[in-house]
């Protein structure tokens, strides 16, 4: 049972700078008054009643809190406290300050496969732990794979944003069409019963991108991307995979499997020869192979640009929506365009709900 404290969060934490914002709230750095320790405060607007379109349903926040309380692991963001007021819930989370894994890698001149594997191991260990508790993340993507800090030469991976995560109960049949098109499995698109195997499909996509700088199913539109996923339309183009080991390709092929029950589990991934070589020859091949850094840098720059562009568009839509509600013309909003507040839900419809974005717990 999730415990929500009725006290005022500011009695215990000093509010600092805004770290990120989204449809339903914002993330701020906070400092614990008693210890001086810095944390991340995830401030979420809660719907005042069932008819309201603004804010999150309290039950969905309860689910996220219960899941975070159940997944205490070195490679998963830690939940410390939860406060509740009349219209807001505040999650006090571990401050993950190292930025995104993909940004960290993009700063390097080169990266061998065995170095990339060190990060993959941490992700897989976190998923093995989660899946053993029948919990699926359902939103694995580069934006939700963070590093604990920027100082350590070998920083820890931290999985964040459990807004779409789900705890499976025995005999339950769960369906959802939420997620990010590039990273969702065919069973999500087909609205079929889901399992923790959906996370493993996402790991296959992430690994493919990490090694080549290409997204395996990416089309010119979300609709085309979804069609490519259903058709299993992907390949290992020699132009981008010339420095990739055969074991790495085999690892990906055993994850990008249409039948979810036939995919490798997180536990099986940790035993795959690419992750855990059995022979000296396998280890040597892995150590000689590298990721396509030139193309990876290009992919990551494009990804960051698209994120920024989408955020600006969302801000403009929210401002225009407010002006329309007030009966003000939107033809020349001027400085109001900069008043991007996060307490209004984006009401523009998105195909099949597959573009739903959740506020990251520390981005």
Automatic annotation (TrEMBL):
User: Which UniProt keywords are given for this protein, alphabetically ordered?
Assistant: ATP-binding, Kinase, Nucleotide-binding, Serine/threonine-protein kinase, Transferase
Question: What name goes with this protein?
Answer: non-specific serine/threonine protein kinase
Q: Which domain of life is it from?
A: Eukaryota
Region ranges (Disordered): 335-363
> GO annotations under biological process?
intracellular signal transduction; positive regulation of apoptotic process
Q: Which family does it belong to?
A: Belongs to the protein kinase superfamily.
Record's GO cellular component terms: cytoplasm; nucleus
In its UniProt record, a GO molecular function of this protein is: protein serine/threonine kinase activity
Q: Which residues form the Protein kinase domain?
A: 13-275
Signal peptide residues on this chain, from the entry's feature table:
none
Binding positions for ATP per the UniProt entry: 42
Q: Name one Pfam family in it.
A: Pkinase
Q: What is its EC number?
A: 2.7.11.1
Nuclease found in the keyword field: no
């Amino acid at each position: 049972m999730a415990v929500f404290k009725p006290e005022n969060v500011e009695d215990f934490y000093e509010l600092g700078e805004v770290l990120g914002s989204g449809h339903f709230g914002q993330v701020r750095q906070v400092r614990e008054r008693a210890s001086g320790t810095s944390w991340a405060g995830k401030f979420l607007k809660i719907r005042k009643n069932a008819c309201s379109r603004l804010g999150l349903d309290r039950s969905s926040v309860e689910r996220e809190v219960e899941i975070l309380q159940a997944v205490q692991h070195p490679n998963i963001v830690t939940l410390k406290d939860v406060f509740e007021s009349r219209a807001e819930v505040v999650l006090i989370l571990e401050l993950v300050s190292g930025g995104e894994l993909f940004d960290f890698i993009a700063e390097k001149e080169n990266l061998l496969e065995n170095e990339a594997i060190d990060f993959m191991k941490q992700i897989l260990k976190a998923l093995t732990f989660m899946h053993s508790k029948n919990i699926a993340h359902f939103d694995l993507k580069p934006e939700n794979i963070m590093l604990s800090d920027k100082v350590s030469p070998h920083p820890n991976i931290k999985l964040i944003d459990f807004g779409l995560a789900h705890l499976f109960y025995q005999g339950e049949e769960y369906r959802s069409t939420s997620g990010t098109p590039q990273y969702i499995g065919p069973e999500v698109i087909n609205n079929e019963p889901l399992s923790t195997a959906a996370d493993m499909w996402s790991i296959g996509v992430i690994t493919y991108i990490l090694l080549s700088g290409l997204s395996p199913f990416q089309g010119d539109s979300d609709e085309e991307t979804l069609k490519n996923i259903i058709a299993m339309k992907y390949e290992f183009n020699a132009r981008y995979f010339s420095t990739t080991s055969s074991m790495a390709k085999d690892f990906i092929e055993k994850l990008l499997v249409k039948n979810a029950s036939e995919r490798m589990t997180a536990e099986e991934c940790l035993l795959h020869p690419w992750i855990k070589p059995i022979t000296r020859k396998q280890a040597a091949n892995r150590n000689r192979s590298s990721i396509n850094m030139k193309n990876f840098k290009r992919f990551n720059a494009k990804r960051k640009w698209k994120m920024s562009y989408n955020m600006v568009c969302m801000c403009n839509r929210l401002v225009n929506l407010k002006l329309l509600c007030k009966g003000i013309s939107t033809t020349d909003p001027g400085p109001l365009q900069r008043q991007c507040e996060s307490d209004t839900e984006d009401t523009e419809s998105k195909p099949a709900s597959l573009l739903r974005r959740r506020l990251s717990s520390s981005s």
